[in-house]
Amino acid sequence: MQVDLAALIRALTAAVVIRCLFGLDPGGRGDELARSEAGLLQALSSPLTLALPLPLPGTPYRRALTLSAALERQLQALLAAKRAQSPGTDVLANLLAARDETGAALGDEELIGECNGLFVAGHDTTAQTLVWTIFLLTQHPEHQAELLAEFTTVLAGAPPRPDELPRLQHLDRALRESMRLLPATPMLFIRVCAGEATLGPHTLPRGARVVLSPFITHRDPALFPEPDRFEPARWQRITPSPWQYLPFGAGPRMCLGAAFAEQALRIMLPMILQRFRITIPAGATISRTVHGIALAPKYGLPAVLAPQDGRPVAPATIRGDIHQLVHLHGRAAPV
Ligand code: HEM
């Protein structure tokens, strides 16, 4: 069966994020909320919305405003329902119970803002990390075989429990390497110099805006030899500093959801690979784009899913500009 694996994984991570953030199970209100959040994100990241921010009928900006108002109503209803029920363990339940040093709770506007911010920050980034990792593993069957063997030894074919994750060393290295090579967030939030600063040979005046790019830093051959190769074993030899390897950013504004995402990825990836033997059809075009803030495969990830039988997957001939980013063992047919 051929599917767009990128779309399926986006739906999966949306369901996981909605469950953990809002305590809603897939189906019903959880799916509605995921659809509304994803629809608004898409409308807001359309170049036309940004180029023409006029609330005139028929404009994409007006559509974004309409979607935003509908989402706000859904979140208001969710807040009311959660206040009426016994407290849960999800993030929103914790935010509702939180009090600052004066004993004040967050207001509805703040809660709705947090809900949107966390969904947007956590959903597509996690999805694209999973998508790129699966793509890289399909093209490097030797590393996929290592993972499957590790899942058999450590997990005995069952889904991973959190206490087993530290023993999944091949998984850890494959994810680190995938987030180095194709980081879901190619650029961090812009920094503004609070005072004059020196950066290498440059003097930056107060107020200068600085863009940091994990994508570029992760390709510095002085830090990561042969940087365009997917080589999980390199993580047995290197221990870069937090500013040299920064898929989740670094410093005080580092990703708030890094620990959550790391754990979610280490649970989802084994569960997918234990269940499915994934092959990319020969001639598939894999090119890059940026969805909102996330580096994503422009045309999705076409894949054939079959029950996992442990047989090695033959890497396909891939077309597209992915070859500018990753060395695919010379099996490629760049376009
Ligand atoms: C693989 C998945 C993820 C990646 C690659 C990722 C990456 C990032 C990056 C690069 C930043 C900017 C850090 C900086 O500028 O130094 C960031 C910020 C943030 N992320 Fe994530 N993220 C992921 C998942 C999540 C999840 C699951 C959540 C929440 C549920 C989340 C919540 C946030 C928040 C709230 C911020 C803003 C932090 C601040 O400005 O203080 N992220 N993330």
SSE blueprint:
Elements (H helix, E strand, L loop, with lengths): L1 E3 H18 L6 H17 L1 H5 L8 H25 L6 H7 L10 H32 L1 H15 L13 H13 L9 E2 L4 E3 L2 E3 L4 E2 L3 H4 L40 H18 E4 L8 E4 L2 E4 L4 E6 L28
Antiparallel strand pairs: 1-9, 2-5, 3-4, 6-9, 7-8
This protein binds protoporphyrin IX containing FE.
Protoporphyrin IX containing FE binds next to helix 6 and helix 10.
Bin the strand percentage. 5-15%
What is the CA-based Rg, rounded?
A: 21 Å
pLDDT under 50 segments (min length 5)?
none
- Cofactors and ligands: protoporphyrin IX containing FE
Q: Which second-level CATH architecture of the domain at 7-23 and 88-184 and 218-274 applies? A: Orthogonal Bundle
The rough form would be described as: globular
CATH structural class of the domain at 7-23 and 88-184 and 218-274 = Mainly Alpha
Query: Helicity, in percent?
Result: 40-55%
The main sheet orders its strands as 1-9-6
Distance between the termini: 26 Å
Mean pLDDT: 93
Helix/strand/pairing category: mainly alpha
H/E order of the elements? Answer: EHHHHHHHHEEEEHHEEEE
The total of helices stands at: 10
Please outline the major beta sheet: 3 strands, antiparallel
